[in-house]
Amino acid sequence: MELVLSLGIGVLAGSGVWLLLRPRTFQVIIGLALLSYAVNLFIFSTGGLRSGSPAILEPGEVGTIAEYADPLPQALVLTAIVIGFATTALLLVVLLAARGLTGTDHVDGRERER
Amino acid sequence: MPDSVLLLTLIVLPFVASIGAGLLPTGARDTASALAGAVALIGLGMVWAAYPAISEGTVLRAEFAWMPSLGLNFVLRMDGFAWLFCGLITGIGALVVLYARYYMSSEDPVPRFFAFLLAFMGAMTGVVISGNLIQLAFFWELTSLFSFLLIGYWHHLAAARDGARMALTITATGGLSLFAGILVLGHIVGSYDLDAVLAAGDRIREHALYLPALLLIVLGALTKSAQFPFHFWLPHAMAAPTPVSAYLHSATLVKAGVFLLARLWPAMAGTDAWTWTVGLAGLITMLIGAYIAIFQNDLKGLLAYSTISHLGLITLLLGLKSELALVAAIFHIINHAAFKCSLFMAAGIIDHETGTRDIRRLSGLNQSMPFTARLAMVAAAAMAGVPLLNGFLSKEMFFAEALSAEAPVSTLLNILPIAAMTASAFSVAYSLRFIHGAFFGPEATDLPRKPHEPATWMRFPVEILVLTCIVVGVLPAATVGPFLSLAVHSVLGNHVPYYSLAVWHGFNLPLLMSVVAMVAGILLYLLLQRRLRSDVEGPPVIWRLEGQRIFERVMVFVSWRLARRLEAVLGTRRLQPQLRLLVGIAILAGATAAWWRGFGPGNLPPSPVDPVLLLIWVVGGACSLGAAWLAKFHRLAALILVGGAGLVVCITFVWFSAPDLALTQLTVEVVTTVLLLLGLRWLPKRVQLPGERGPEVLSRTRRLRDLALATGAGLGMAALAYATMTRTPPDLLARHFLARAYTEGGGTNVVNVILVDFRGFDTLGEIFVVAAVALTTYALLRRFRPAQDSVEIPEQQRDQAATDANEAGRAEPGRVADWLLVPFTLTRLLFPVMLIVAMYLLLRGHDLPGGGFSAGMVVAIAIILQYMIGGTEWTEDRLRLRPQLWVGAGLLLAAGTGLAAWLFGRPFMTSYFAYGELPIIGKVPMASALIFDIGVFALVVGATLLMLVALAHQSVRAHRAAPRRAATEAGDD
What we know:
The complex is a heterodimer. In chain A, about 65% of the residues lie in helices and about 0% in strands. Chain A is mostly helical. Chain A has one domain (about 1-50, about 70-100): Helix Hairpins (Orthogonal Bundle). By secondary structure, chain B is mainly alpha-helical. Chain B folds into 3 domains: about 1-130; about 130-540, no CATH class; about 730-973, no CATH class. The longest helix of chain B has about 30 residues, at about 160-190. At the A-B interface, helix 1, helix 2 and helix 3 of A face helix 27, helix 28, helix 29, helix 30 and helix 31 of B.
């Protein structure tokens, strides 16, 4: 299962990087979204892959790592998801404003001279 | 009065008053000067109040915790030497304030002037009573800063701006060097406390790092005291108003350098290196300054170079290996402050009353302003070292030292007396020029203003200072004696040599030298008459030695040419090469680490592959690749595919026991998609024409390179992820959180407890970021101007409008309800249900999957759905949203919950929890973390809506006129 997930992360990251290097703003936004999926999954996976481990404690209980999922990467990723949304929104608006000002959706604000 | 109150008042009062003066209206000249005068007088009173304790040899100390973790305390320490300087700062400060009241024109923004002056007073006091070297460096830089502001006070004048910039560049750079030197010194001693440093003199001098520390500190002191080769900033600082020149550039600021040298004298002096650096710089400065001063045509320029020269004298004295020389240096600091300050004030009076400071134009002022003339003559005589005035005494001491000092090489010993006499002769010559040029000769007729005596109170400070010069000169032991002795004792401790402050020491060699210098000076002045009357600027022989020109050249090179060249060589304005570089470096760094330390799968056996998840990931991978493929020409399709990939990620979270993540990911996914959909509208059309030729060769190679980079990055990530996943994860923190989530955080949902309790501060920071982003997008969109080709209404909407117009019975406002009837009804029905779901998620968040983030997102989605189906106008008619209020309330609630812990005497963000019994609902958690989570919830709702609604409004805003146009066009058809 680890192999499947790592390959998945690899594909997401590869597509993300490819789009990041493209000249159009929309491609960059999509690329960042894909890249953030990959990174979030990677951080999440550092806690180990456990299916079926409870994530919620029994009331009054002191949890142990043997029976419960690792909460720390989860907390980190949860934060990352929200921040990722915020930055995507900011980037989108900045790029839209740039397109309005420069008349092009090239990342440099002008078309490449040929 | 307790020491701490006294010291603290001395240092804090000027800063407080500075802010007060800064808040006064522009025209409040009298109020501002009264405030500044009162502060200076209170300071002087404090200094006087400290005298009884100081005179017994006590060192006043006050210590406050500053950065205890680093062993740094805010220490105020006043011994005799610091006391003397405090007296100079406050006493001369009071006189300068009085003078400035009459000097400054009522058209200038005088309160600002006094605000800067007071702040400078505070900073300078800080320098002299700092008991901690880091703190001293801090105040040191503050003095540079306020000196900059004061020089540039008349910022409409180019000379003032240039002079201020130059002074700041030189002295602040020196300050940085001083700071570095202090760090080295602190490293040697093991403490930054002044007492510890002063006590460790032998250890410092023998340490291997002594020389670097010495050079760095001396560099700081020399730049501040305008010593060669950094002297050139001082004459340019004369663009400042004259009270500033009198106060900062003769009596206080420039004395900071020599103050520091004297302060560290017991710890650092006494080596050959010290004499070579400090002594040599002083010697050269003394001679060059005096020489150039003779040839200055500007009264203030003459005084500036004379100041440089006298500071050189003090520096030279400090550089000699002799305790007596130190006594002479401190004595001269006092004397110089008195006569130079009064001379600057006199020059300012002349400038004020005649409108010029040019010695060649001025003449015969003795007739029109006889009192001022007498005062200036006495002060200039003191500067020249005429007997029965204070300058004579310290000069005699200097001559005696020049004859008896030890020096590393004997030639220096032979040079010293001659150099001393030469400088003294120059000093006589320029003093003569000042007096003779301005006050004697025929009365000038072509002055800009008709000269007359200044206001009585404007002359009063000069009178006081000149009186001091005379009294000290006649009765030194009775007047300045005790103060000098205090200062000397506090620097030298028990090693104070015998010195005599008598006026008459009998016929001896120093007296002879004085006479020779005096005569030589008079002769020199007579000989130079023709040259001085000519129009030639600057001194003969060394006029090329313009430090300023070198400075300008360096500045132009560093800040313009070098920067431009570096930018041309290394910079690019294009994003893609930068990103390529970034990705390339990241891949390289990862590969290097793997190659270096070895790389391979870990110890854990791989878990069995589940065919369902495998299939899901095949879809996920395909979505991801498809999005990458289609993002250029088929944006909508790419967006849908990204959503697909997001869903796969979401399922993965569920699969591997992370319900909270899945929930958040799902809701964020929806909002992000809506957001991007809204953005699509404003991007240019890009259509792939069927017959279009493929990309050019160049572009194709670029793509191949990018493909290689992307593949590399993907493979690298995959390998890294695999290696990580097959290793036993570290569980130290996880164990800690799992064990305490319920027992100390009161919640069973560990992830949520981490977010709102254990790491609540991080979450607080995060929501502030989200709020900032939302407000930024809102602000950006308020000024949004769409590109020309995006302005008109989209094709689909036009078609729909045309159809509607042609069909009878379609009312315009109900259009959406008309053609999207089923979803329209459904979303309206769903709205309350979604809100209840959100509340449920929020309230149970502490114990079950949910929490403020996902609940907030659900509410935002519910509202956005109404927008999408009902249309902006329909929704806003029925729902009054105030996203900014939600954002503000959320931040206040979250931060307030954190602050509330202070009320109970706990650290910021301490949480409290209990379980309460409510009727019907039953047992509910009542943790303060829940209130925090509600804050997070409100913020997420507000921020998300703010962004989405602002973006959605663009369509309405940009087309307010468009529908009408479309309707008329449709009607024409």
